[in-house]
UniProtKB/TrEMBL annotation:
Pathway: Carbohydrate degradation; pentose phosphate pathway; D-ribose 5-phosphate from D-ribulose 5-phosphate (non-oxidative stage): step 1/1. One of its GO terms (molecular function) is ribose-5-phosphate isomerase activity. The gene is rpiA. It comes from the Bacteria. This is Ribose-5-phosphate isomerase A.
Amino acid sequence: MTVDEQKEAVGEAALKYVKPGMKVGLGTGSTAAWFVKAIAREVEAGLKLTLVSTSVQTTQLAESLGLTIKDINDVGTLDLCVDGADEVGDGLALIKGGGGALLREKLIWEQARTCVVIADAAKHVPVLGKFPLPIEVEPFAWKGTVNRISDVLVEFDIDKLPIMRKKDGQPWITDGGNLIFDVACGRIEDPSGLGAALKSVTGVVDHGLFLDLAEVALIATPDGVRIVEP
Ligand SMILES: O=C(CO)[C@H](O)[C@H](O)COP(=O)(O)O
């Protein structure tokens, strides 16, 4: 199975968590896109759902497939959110935000009763941190914020600098108008301690550690989709 076929398989497999009438959050990224396509097919066939999106990119994809995306503020608690991840670690601790949508993703995840993460096998890791951890930063006074992030990293024995994410030489800007800094941590031994410490820095809008949020992971393997619980 190619990686793309694995992504398609988990996107399709997540359909089993979708029931008629549900309010569903649509994740962001190339894996979540397969779920969006599967949902579009089912809606076209008559399934009734209320849908919200975690990014402009996903809204554009969904609308191009004929889906209607509601404003999250008009919807209340969601039944389900299905989204990809960059790393899936022990206890379903995750790194997300490779696609830069981490803040809106976390807002949608926290408003959902059940969160299902879908990923290809290469993303299932024993220890988080090989994938650079994205940190979303308010642009005003970003240099001071990054200095304080660096101080936090030192406290956690991470001797790597936050690198500003760029596209075509320009700062990459999130849907919410913020900057992203990526930190190649290596190994994150204490995800909850690091997450809390980063969140306490003024100017950090959020970070890509998603802890205690996923109820189940669907991991594609060459032999089929494996269900992983915390
Ligand atoms: O967190 C995300 C976007 O902010 C994505 O879910 C994550 O980057 C995985 O993307 P892909 O499925 O394309 O590998």
